């Protein structure tokens, strides 16, 4: 009896332990996964809480708006907004800096995806290539956003010695990377864009503008080359982009009363992104009492210009706030890539090489769709200077509230336009002279404390 | 207990001689004369040989004796000692029935760990037992509520700081971000169904396992302590018994006037001021956002649509209305809870059974809400093979149904809103849309858009909970000392929630209208959501299967050594699935829906705002799976019945995701030592016949299944482009470990002669080791923090239990006192860079090393300045630079005030009995903690619903100089959030929460003493119970209820309840 029992027990125990492995291998929650299929990897890139965001510091530092009163200035929610408005050397007061963190999250996601792709070597080459192109694009988009905010403007003479950003090539969270040179940062961005351009689909996905395409790669290249001052490359990129995507919206068909005139997938959008979810007081839609759109800019629009009623809502005497731009909701501005920007890049490049007529024709392509029907007079320019002036004025009027103004100011001042920004609070005048070190945002203290990378001199 | 110990000493001195000639094993059994229940742990002493044995958990014992006559003394705590004489060989089986000793009746002897029953006398661990009588003192539907305020070490969290916080904690919180709920064991197995499935009348007792020696047998689940709930069973050889218990509880309507509101008239004045400031201009201009009736009148007057006289007249009319009066009249009633229960139990030689049925019907104070529950509990055991094999089977069924109103009227827009007119006819109130907008919509072909709360004042949400638990067990005695047990349990719980918004409900009409498109030329309406009801259907199914194989070994070696051991393994599988669905255009007649006609991926324009939105598909599904394989062993060795050493070890392995197989499990162990000092020869304190010292050391564990060692992601909802997306939940963490809690416990149990005064003291230290905490990563990593085993905590405490029999004559008076101290602190936490504002507003997310997890921090108040602006200390100076104040991380700028949960707590219960009347009063005290009170909040006052914020309004700064007499800041328009929060979070608004309350009174009238009644009933009792009588003392002088420091009409102090009932046993 006893022996029998022992015998049975032994069998029971060995059965128990042998099936133990598979018994404990089942995952505890249906919602968690170790991403290892292409669909799951794409799912990481579809994450709208991480992807498709760019920084907000360039917006709060630029001159597209001003604060209506001292009282409103003091009621700004974050210290960063208050300091950013007057370009204080001490910018963050210990606050979280999403401008730095969010792009690095995007890079972490992209690197995680690229690592799994490399390890898995999926059979479906086409699908896997598309995902690889997507992740590469995301990395490039995030890197460019970081480098235009946290590094000095690109200058081919000093780029090899100027500091760029840390280039993260692996998702390993323990690994600390020091800052690369500005030149290597741009090289890295273009390397990623080459890969993305080769692997991504040509068509802009009509219902999923959060996904990049060849057109998006080219539009981003055009934007970056323009920032670098490489007009010939910018023009080529812009031209090629327009071959893939040249859709324009006729504003005559857009509601002038709706607070959300456009949608997330509005025709002109090539790639969707918005400002990080921060600094609402200075960038939000609707009647935000604290700021008004720069009245000098408002004055540029003629009464026949539909943009005046579609972009802005009048919320007081001479006070204009923003309606939603090329987004379908939310509280933060569109910062993505769109046909109009590509056309303006092309027009600027043409103007700069003296092709005034072609330049103006390029602007007129979309301008005719911005004015009330039959009330548009085509732009013409008699000199290169006039053409450039008209293009840059259109750049302000068409691309307002897209987070582009700050990087434009950086390059304009590099090229000698000598623009000084002025703000007055409590009867104190604050000014930002051209090429001031404060055009480069400081790296967050937490990053310096934990990784010891080099801080910007501000 | 006292008698028992004295007897031992007396017997030890008398040495008797004649040795038996031919030894034979005789077996016997000790039972209770009144209940017939087996008495495990009874001491059987052969006075002639001075040989003793102890009965096992079935009350059985074996003596080895030669032929002859022997005198036996049988001792059992709270029973009268029995002396009998036996003749060997025995003529009939030896069953010894002991009579209860009334003096010691309240003592409970056996503690249960869920794996074994241990006589408390021999338990080295720290246990608290709440017996049936104490459990039944309280009347109610929920068994766990009955533990509130009656025992040490256990605290109920009355005002939670986080929604996920456990309702109750044993010896404080043992984790930072891990699971904080104690493990609940129902009979032998962990119970993870709804606790409300359990009928409290089925519960025999509850044991609370507090230290490592008591709880570590539950391994990784025991980190937060264990509550072992034991249900009634039948007894062998007992007569059939039946009984009923029924009661009715009536509760007051909630006190809606507890929150401090502005009167209608005062609030209209504030609205007038704000209106003049232009605060409503942009709201009014959008045409659809609700504005209060007073503002409608002001606006009409401002636009010259009505005269000044008319506007004043209309406004005066509003001043007479009071929405709380309407709500109390139409939405609330006194609550009534009815409870009925019935049982039968009994047993023969080979069989025992217990069957019970219960029915509860609760009508909540909100007139739409009700709950009812049916329970059925049956268990049966029988023995075979000459009592060597015992087979148990049991079933517990529970079915409950809860009806509530979803989207009911709960938050008035103004204090003068009205639910009905003078004739009692339902009036429309604003919900989401302005009344004038809805009036306009009535002119179109849209569906009626009015919301009349009284027309929809009925339950629309129905939750059905069905649970069954099947138990089967097999006990087999292989040889004398060795037994095998095989236990199995299956539980299924089905939860079906059905929210039915019929086609006429405002909810359904509103959603249909919102997405409608009006063709302004033809007036026709196109409806992307078809007209009809909207139904949300959520179903979840929980299935658990447990199996346990266990070996029990008990052996006495000689007269002095006793070994008792269990070992076994256990497998567990918990599987929960859920499916949520939403149906549009639901037709109750045909039970069909129109979902197929809806495009859920399209961005529709919202009719009134011009914003866009998608139609919520309301679909969801998923599962949760918990699997465990565990091995356990627990042994105790007893020497001379004086020293007992216990050792316990367990290894749990679970399906942690993405963890290397060798890291899936964790071994946890404990050791305990017990010393019966009073049994030492040198012990001479005759006034203190019972003195026992305990000590234990060991580990319990805790696990978070959300952390994994691999890169893992969780599936989110679809993004705005309609694609599924994943969020990375944690980066790979190859060194992931389980949380451990090390507990060192000492204990002293004592009793004076006749148990005049008895009790126990248990000081303890708990170390939380390898707790999940967050460490900061350089932001370039792309992940802000890394969750890992980086935090440690230290808890020191003491549990005290004292029972005193003050009077023992015709008038009996006993006092039971419990006292617990529990002080914890976080000893290491790697993230120390939180801003002061987050430390203050959410300390549970930014714990600071050196302070308790539940702490209250505050800015150091520095008075108002001469403009009425609040100032607090910043770097040693009064400051009103609110941004710097918020964003400072310099901790000297804030003050740690204290714990936000009680650090000292307990109760004193006095019971009196005179003839057939018994009365007991329970006083509960909670000390050593703080709460933050509300005060005038500028921002809230000047925003929608500001009428709810009348506190300290009259004390506000109004004129220069007021800063000398008040701390309440001046009101500013527009309000500045940081300025308000600086005041709200300053130390002058933190109050001591300490309080003493008369929790309840219980009155029993025992009728079974009356002759004619005792013929039919073994017990007949009529009882009354009053709960929540009120505070006897509160440290705060503001009249605030520390449990509800910020009352709101949906969260007021628990109303008083009165219950009456009858309990009868046949």
TrEMBL record, chain A:
InterPro entries assigned to the protein according to its UniProt record, in alphabetical order: SusD-like_N, SusD_RagB_dom, TPR-like_helical_dom_sf
Pfam family, one: SusD-like_3
Compartments reported by the entry: Cell outer membrane
Chief location of this protein within or outside the cell: membrane
Domain of life: Bacteria
Domain named RagB/SusD: residues: 309-456
Any one annotated GO CC term: cell outer membrane
Matches recorded under Gene3D superfamilies: 1.25.40.390
UniProt name for this protein: SusD family protein
Annotated source species: Pedobacter nyackensis
Automatic annotation (TrEMBL), chain B:
Segments passing through the bilayer: none
Keyword check for NAD: no
Entry keyword ATP-binding: no
Residue intervals of the TonB-dependent receptor plug domain: 120-226
Location of the protein in the cell: Cell outer membrane
UniProt xrefs under Gene3D superfamilies: Carboxypeptidase-like, regulatory domain (2.60.40.1120), TonB-dependent receptor, beta-barrel domain (2.40.170.20), TonB-dependent receptor, plug domain (2.170.130.10)
InterPro entries the UniProt entry points to: Beta-barrel_TonB_sf, CarboxyPept-like_regulatory, Plug_dom, Plug_dom_sf, TonB-dep_OMP_SusC/RagA, TonB-dep_OMP_SusC/RagA_CS, TonB-dep_rcpt-like
Topology in the lipid bilayer: Multi-pass membrane protein
Classification via SUPFAM superfamilies: Carboxypeptidase regulatory domain-like (SSF49464), Porins (SSF56935)
PROSITE patterns the record matches: TONB_DEPENDENT_REC_3 (PS52016)
GO cellular component term of the entry, any: cell outer membrane
Keywords: Cell outer membrane, Membrane, Transmembrane, Transmembrane beta strand, Transport
Coiled coil regions, renumbered to chain: none
Similarity comment text for this entry: Belongs to the TonB-dependent receptor family.
Protein name: TonB-linked outer membrane protein, SusC/RagA family
UniProt source species: Pedobacter nyackensis
């Amino acid at each position: 009896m006893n022996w029998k029992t022992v015998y049975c027990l032994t069998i029971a125990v060995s059965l128990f332990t042998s099936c133990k492995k598979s018994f404990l291998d089942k995952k505890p929650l249906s919602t968690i996964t170790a991403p290892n299929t292409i669909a799951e990897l794409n799912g990481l890139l579809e994450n709208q809480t991480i992807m498709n965001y760019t920084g907000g510091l360039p917006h709060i530092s630029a001159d597209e708006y001003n604060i209506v009163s001292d009282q409103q200035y003091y009621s700004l929610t974050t210290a960063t907004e208050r300091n950013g408005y007057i370009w204080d050397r001490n910018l963050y007061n210990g606050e979280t800096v999403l401008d730095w963190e969010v792009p690095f999250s995007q890079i972490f996601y992209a690197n995680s995806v690229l690592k799994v792709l490399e390890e898995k070597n999926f059979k479906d080459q086409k699908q896997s290539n598309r995902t690889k192109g997507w992740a590469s694009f995301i990395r490039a988009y995030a890197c460019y956003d970081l480098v235009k905010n946290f590094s000095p403007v690109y200058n081919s003479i000093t780029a090899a010695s100027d500091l760029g950003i840390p280039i993260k090539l692996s998702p390993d969270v323990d690994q600390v990377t020091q800052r690369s040179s500005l030149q290597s940062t741009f090289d890295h961005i273009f390397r990623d864009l080459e890969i993305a351009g080769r692997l991504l689909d040509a068509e802009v996905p009509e219902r999923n503008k959060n996904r990049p395409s060849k057109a998006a790669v080219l539009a981003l290249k055009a934007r970056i080359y323009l920032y670098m001052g490489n007009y010939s490359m910018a023009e080529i990129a812009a031209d090629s982009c327009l071959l893939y995507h040249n859709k324009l919206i006729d504003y005559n068909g857009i509601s002038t009363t709706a607070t959300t005139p456009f949608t997330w997938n509005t025709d002109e959008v090539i790639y969707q992104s918005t400002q990080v979810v921060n600094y609402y007081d200075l960038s939000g839609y609707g009647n935000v009492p604290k700021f008004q759109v720069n009245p000098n800019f408002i004055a540029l629009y003629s009464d026949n210009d539909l943009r005046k009623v579609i972009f802005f809502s009048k919320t007081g005497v001479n006070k204009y706030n923003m309606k939603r731009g090329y987004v379908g909701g939310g509280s933060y501005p569109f910062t993505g890539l769109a046909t109009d920007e590509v056309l303006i890049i092309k027009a600027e490049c043409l103007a700069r090489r003296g092709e005034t007529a072609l330049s103006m024709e390029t602007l007129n392509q979309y301008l005719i769709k911005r004015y009330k029907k039959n009330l548009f007079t085509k732009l013409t320019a008699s000199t290169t200077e006039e053409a450039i002036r008209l293009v840059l004025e259109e750049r302000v009027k068409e691309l307002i509230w897209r987070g582009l103004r700050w990087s434009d100011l950086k390059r304009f001042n590099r090229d000698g336009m000598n623009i000084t920004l002025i703000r007055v609070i409590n009867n104190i005048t604050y000014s930002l002279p051209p090429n001031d070190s404060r055009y480069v945002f400081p790296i967050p203290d937490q990053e310096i404390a934990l990784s010891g990378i080099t801080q910007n001199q501000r | 207990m006292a008698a028992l110990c004295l007897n031992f000493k007396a017997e030890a001195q008398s040495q008797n001689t004649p040795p038996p000639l031919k030894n034979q094993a005789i077996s016997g059994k000790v039972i209770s004369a009144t209940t017939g229940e087996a008495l495990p742990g009874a001491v059987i002493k052969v006075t002639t040989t001075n040989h003793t044995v102890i009965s096992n958990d079935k009350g059985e014992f074996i003596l080895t004796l030669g032929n002859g006559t022997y005198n036996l003394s049988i001792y059992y705590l709270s029973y009268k000692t029995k002396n009998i004489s036996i003749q060997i060989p025995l003529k009939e089986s030896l069953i010894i029935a002991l009579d209860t000793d009334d003096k010691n009746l309240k003592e409970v002897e056996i503690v249960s760990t869920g794996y074994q029953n241990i006589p408390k006398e021999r338990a080295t661990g720290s246990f608290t037992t709440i017996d049936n009588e104490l459990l039944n003192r309280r009347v109610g539907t929920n068994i766990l509520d009955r533990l509130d305020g009656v025992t040490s070490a256990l605290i109920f969290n009355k005002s939670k700081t986080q929604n996920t916080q456990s309702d109750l904690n044993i010896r404080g919180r043992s984790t930072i971000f891990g699971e904080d709920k104690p493990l609940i064991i129902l009979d032998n197995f962990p119970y993870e169904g709804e606790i409300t499935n359990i009928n409290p009348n089925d519960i025999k007792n509850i044991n609370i396992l507090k230290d490592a020696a008591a709880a570590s047998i539950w391994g990784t689940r025991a980190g937060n302590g264990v509550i072992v709930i034991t249900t009634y069973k039948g007894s062998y050889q007992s007569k059939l018994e039946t009984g009923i218990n029924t009661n009715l509880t009536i509760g007051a309507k909630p006190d809606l006037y507890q929150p401090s509101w502005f009167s209608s008239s005062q609030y209209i004045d504030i609205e007038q001021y704000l209106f003049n400031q232009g605060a409503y201009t942009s709201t009014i201009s959008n045409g659809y956002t609700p504005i209060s009736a007073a503002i409608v009148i002001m606006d009409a007057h401002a636009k010259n649509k009505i005269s000044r006289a008319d506007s004043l007249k209309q406004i005066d009319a509003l001043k007479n209305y009071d929405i709380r009066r309407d709500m109390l009249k139409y939405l609330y009633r006194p609550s009534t809870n009815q409870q009925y229960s019935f049982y039968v139990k009994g047993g023969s030689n080979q069989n025992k059974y217990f069957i019970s049925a219960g029915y509860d019907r609760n009508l909540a104070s909100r007139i739409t809400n009700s709950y009812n529950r049916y329970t059925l509990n049956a268990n049966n055991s029988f023995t075979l093979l000459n009592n060597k094999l015992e087979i148990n089977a049991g079933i517990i069924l529970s079915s409950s149904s809860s009806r509530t109103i979803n989207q009911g009227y709960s938050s008035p827009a103004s204090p003068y809103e009205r639910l009905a007119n003078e004739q009692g006819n339902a009036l429309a109130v604003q919900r989401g849309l302005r009344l004038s907008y809805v009036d306009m919509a009535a002119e179109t072909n849209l569906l009626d858009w009015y919301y009349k709360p009284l027309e929809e004042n009925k339950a629309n949400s129905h939750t059905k909970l069905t649970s069954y638990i099947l138990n089967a067990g097999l006990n087999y005695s292989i040889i004398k000392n060795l037994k095998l047990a095989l236990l199995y349990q299956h539980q299924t719980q089905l939860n079906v929630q059905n929210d039915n918004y019929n086609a006429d409900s405002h909810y359904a009409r509103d959603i249909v209208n919102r997405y409608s498109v009006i063709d302004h030329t033809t007036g026709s309406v196109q409806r992307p959501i078809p007209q009809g009801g909207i139904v949300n259907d959520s179903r979840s199914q929980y299935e658990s299967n447990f199996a346990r194989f266990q070996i029990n070994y008990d052996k006495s070696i000689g007269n002095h050594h006793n070994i008792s051991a269990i070992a076994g393994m256990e497998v567990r599988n918990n599987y929960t699935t859920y499916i949520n669905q939403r149906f549009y255009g639901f037709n109750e007649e045909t039970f069909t829906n129109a979902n197929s006609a809806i495009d859920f991926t399209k961005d529709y324009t919202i009719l009134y705002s011009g914003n866009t939105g998608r139609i919520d598909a309301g679909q969801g599904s998923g599962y949760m799976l918990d699997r465990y394989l565990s091995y356990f062993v627990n042994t105790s060795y007893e020497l001379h019945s004086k020293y007992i050493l216990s050792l316990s070890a367990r290894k749990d392995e679970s399906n942690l995701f993405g963890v290397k197989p060798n890291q899936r499990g964790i071994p946890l162990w404990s050791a305990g030592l017990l010393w019966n000092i009073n049994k030492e020869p040198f012990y001479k304190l005759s006034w203190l016949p019972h003195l026992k010292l305990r000590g234990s050391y060991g580990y319990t564990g805790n696990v978070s299944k959300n952390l994994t060692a691999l890169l893992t992601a969780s599936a989110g909802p679809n993004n705005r482009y309609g694609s599924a997306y994943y969020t990375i939940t944690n980066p790979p963490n190859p060194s992931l470990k389980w949380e451990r809690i090390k507990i060192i416990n000492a204990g002293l149990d004592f009793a004076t002669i006749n148990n005049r005064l008895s009790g126990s003291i248990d000081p303890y230290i708990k170390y939380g080791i390898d707790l999940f905490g967050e460490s900061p990563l350089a932001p370039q990593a792309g992940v802000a923090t890394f969750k890992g085993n980086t935090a440690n905590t230290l808890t020191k405490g003491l549990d005290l239990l004292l029972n005193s029999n003050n009077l023992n004559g015709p008038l009996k008076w006993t006092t039971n006192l419990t006292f617990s101290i529990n002080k914890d602190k976080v000893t290491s936490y790697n993230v120390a860079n939180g801003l002061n504002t987050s430390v203050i507003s959410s300390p549970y997310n930014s714990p600071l090393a050196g302070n308790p997890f539940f702490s209250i921090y505050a800015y150091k108040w520095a008075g108002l300045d001469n403009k009425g602006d609040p100032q607090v200390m910043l770097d040693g100076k009064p400051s009103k630079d609110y941004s710097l104040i918020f964003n400072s991380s310099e901790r000297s700028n804030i003050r740690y005030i204290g714990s936000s949960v009680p650090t000292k707590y307990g109760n004193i219960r006095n019971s009196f009995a005179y003839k057939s009347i018994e009365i007991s009063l329970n006083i509960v005290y909670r000390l050593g903690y703080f709460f933050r009170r509300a005060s005038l909040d500028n921002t809230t006052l000047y925003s929608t619903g500001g009428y709810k914020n009348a506190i300290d309004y009259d004390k506000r700064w109004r004129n220069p100089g007021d800063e000398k007499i008040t701390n309440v800041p001046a009101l500013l328009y527009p309000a500045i959030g940081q300025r308000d929060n600086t005041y709200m979070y300053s130390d002058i608004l933190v109050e001591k929460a300490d309080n003493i309350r008369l929790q309840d009174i219980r009155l029993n009238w025992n009728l079974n003493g009356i002759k004619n009644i005792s013929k039919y009933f073994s017990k007949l009792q009529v009882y009354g119970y009053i709960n929540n009588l009120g505070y006897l003392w509160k440290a705060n002088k503001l009249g605030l209820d520390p449990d509800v420091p910020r009352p709101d009409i949906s969260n007021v102090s628990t109303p008083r309840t009165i219950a009456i009932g009858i309990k009868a046993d046949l």
